[in-house]
Amino acid sequence: MSVTMPPATWLVLGASSAVARAFAHQAASHGAALLLAGRDTEDLERQAADLAIRHRVSATPVAFDARDLGSHAGFIADCAARSTGTLNVFLAFGVMPEQAEADRDPATAAAMVEANFTGAASVLAALAPVLEAQRGGTVVALGSVAGDRGRPRNYLYGATKAALATYLQGYAARLSRSGARVLCVKAGPIDTAMTWPLPRLPFMATPQAFARSLWQRAERGAGSVYLPRVWWPVMGIIRLLPTRIFNRLDI
Amino acid sequence: MPDTMSAPEAEAVPAEALRGRGWKQAALQPWGRNTTAPCIAARPERMRELWAALDVPEGRALLARGAGRSYGDACLNPGGAMVLTERLDRILHFDSATGLVVAEPGVTFADLLTVFLPRGFVAPVSPGTAFVTLGGALANDVHGKNHHLAGSIGEHVAWFELLLPDSRHLRVSAESDPELFRATIGGIGLTGIITAVCLRLVPVPSNALVVRRTRMPDLDHFLAGFAAAAEASYSVGWIDALATGATLGRGVLEVAEPSESPVAEPSPRSRSFPIDAPEVLLNGATVRAFNELYWRRAPMEGRQQVLPYRRFFYPLDTIHGWNRMYGKRGFHQFQCVLPFGPGEMALRRLLETISASGNASFLAVLKVMGREGVGYLSFGKPGYSLALDIPARAESPALFATLERITRDAGGRIYLAKDSLLSAEGFAEMYPEAHRLQAVRARVDPDGALSSGMSRRFGLG
Ligand SMILES: Cc1cc2nc3c(=O)[nH]c(=O)nc-3n(C[C@H](O)[C@H](O)[C@H](O)COP(=O)(O)OP(=O)(O)OC[C@H]3O[C@@H](n4cnc5c(N)ncnc54)[C@H](O)[C@@H]3O)c2cc1C
Ligand SMILES: NC(=O)c1ccc[n+]([C@@H]2O[C@H](COP(=O)([O-])OP(=O)(O)OC[C@H]3O[C@@H](n4cnc5c(N)ncnc54)[C@H](OP(=O)(O)O)[C@@H]3O)[C@@H](O)[C@H]2O)c1
């Protein structure tokens, strides 16, 4: 068990995602209690049982919809009341419909912006006072390398992640004054339901390997981090490519 | 997943039919890597997605897959649709008073060991690798090194839940629906998708076994050694499949009992087999040298050691992807069970045929099996079980036809989990209760939605 991260509660938002599951197992294996938030409550019940049996921790499902903005204040109050020790948050929810689908159907586009950005901003806003009051805690949010530079294949998705990253910069600065830490993860491809139908992607990480290194970062770091680490130099190059060349690439 | 690759050459399903539905083109191999089957594949992360996967694009034939540890086409569905169950791996319930555990089908024996050995429980029956899933274990009614006492896994299943192609979801026990129970245990995935398993774990005094290894100079001594070990909790024999003449059937007999005192277990370290081995590495000389060494390691008078369960149950698991050792063409495994009595002669003939074929094989595994399994297609029956790997070569089908002939003549049975070459006639003779499975399938899957490479090979549809 680490000194920097004593047993506490981790609230996992979007807990049905494979990355979120793997992260919850990391947290549970370090003795943390879990609040599993999402829409598929039947699955969250199963996961709660699994975490409790494997790691002998308390794990509780909580209903949560990122797009139901009006519910967020009550939801956070409820989670704060249920948590033991320091409350920490892992924000993992997000959707990635095809760009063409979002172009065709404005409702799809709006729903993605609402889930990935508006919903995230809203729930984080409700959370901030809790973190300030407890004078500590960690927030880890899943951004994406897709937010670093818009590509034809998924620029609306990328834009929502870029917006989230920018939001988190200010959010981190605000919370640092009360001792809470915020980590924005610029994730490369992870082998999950989101990427399963896509053609094979480079440097694909398993959810377990990803969560393991993320846990290590979360224990120490704040700010933003590329994971897997190889994306740091890769995105460094991609961001610097002259537009003329970038536009001709099929990436 | 190392054994999935994109397959542009696969008979393509139009991308439009797959879009947004969790399916993709894939090409899957069995553990023996002796063939590659183009198919479409879905990998549900949770039950809701599993249900969605029943809506198969273009009405393709459907089959579940676990960890793909079957050596042949039991876990393949060429041209069909595969539902990968590996991500459905939640442990749902455990009762330490009874040892009953309820788990999703993708939970592996490795999971069970990690979670429950520290609490004093192990799986009642365990195959030779911990990567096997519970769904796959039920579907092949797997056995372990305690078959002579414990039978195969189906005997330890209190109930399972089964999802039928038409979305009906049933809890099935030997009492509630004996036919469906017996059709699904050992039913190679042909009755539906197992969604939960309630298994009876057994209490053990520590994390370790007292293992005794003894060198056996020839087959007669080996069989006598097994007879003397009839009461041992676990027993398994490793045969040097290249030994001939007076040393035919020489090897090492291992017997084990639960240890009262624990051992310190080094944290599991694993290595991977990095590449497809060039085939020249695997010639008679290297294999002979390896087998000789292995045999000499165990002293004549026997040696006793206290080993953690993991090391005794799963000796191969520390090297990930060892199946790549056989090179790009892959390999076949031959496993049969031969009845006591007439089987002894056949055992000898099998070993002679294999060593005469010059097909290099590493160690062969010899076990004693105790009784028939509960499934209509269960492999188990009283007798000797012999298993060995044979590199895939042009002459493999001919060699396997000979091995099949010898097995049939002795009233033996070939294990479907390992098989890719058994003939349909041989299957019908060895598995006389297959028609009962077919009757159950007509009831639970009247439209014939479920099928596999193996079921079509045997003419089961
Ligand atoms: C190194 C090694 C050692 C082995 N030792 C032994 C041994 O000692 N004893 C023994 O009995 N076997 C042994 N085996 C074989 C292995 O136990 C079986 O092949 C087992 O069925 C593999 O399980 P799997 O999870 O990999 O399933 P797969 O191989 O993927 O599938 C096996 C079958 O199960 C079906 N299936 C899988 N999941 C489901 C589900 N959820 N619902 C319905 N059907 C399903 C599939 O359709 C298929 O027919 C060994 C294999 C290896 C590689
Ligand atoms: N996979 C990658 O390669 C990759 C790369 C970079 C970043 N990411 C990010 O990683 C996160 C996890 O994604 P994943 O890959 O694991 O994909 P995923 O399986 O699709 O997970 C997304 C999760 O978000 C939840 N969700 C979606 N809309 C929601 C809403 N309105 N309210 C509450 N929860 C909602 C979903 O749960 P329900 O549908 O059950 O509600 C699901 O659990 C996402 O933010 C994704 O953008 C992924």
From TrEMBL, chain B:
SUPFAM superfamilies attached to this UniProt entry: FAD-binding/transporter-associated domain-like
PROSITE patterns, sorted: FAD_PCMH
Record domain FAD-binding PCMH-type: where: 33-204
Tagged with keyword Iron: no
GO CC annotation terms, alphabetical: membrane
GO terms for MF: D-arabinono-1,4-lactone oxidase activity; FAD binding
Alphabetical keyword list: FAD, Flavoprotein, Oxidoreductase
Name listed for the protein in its UniProt record: FAD-binding oxidoreductase
High-level lineage: Bacteria, Pseudomonadati, Pseudomonadota, Alphaproteobacteria, Acetobacterales
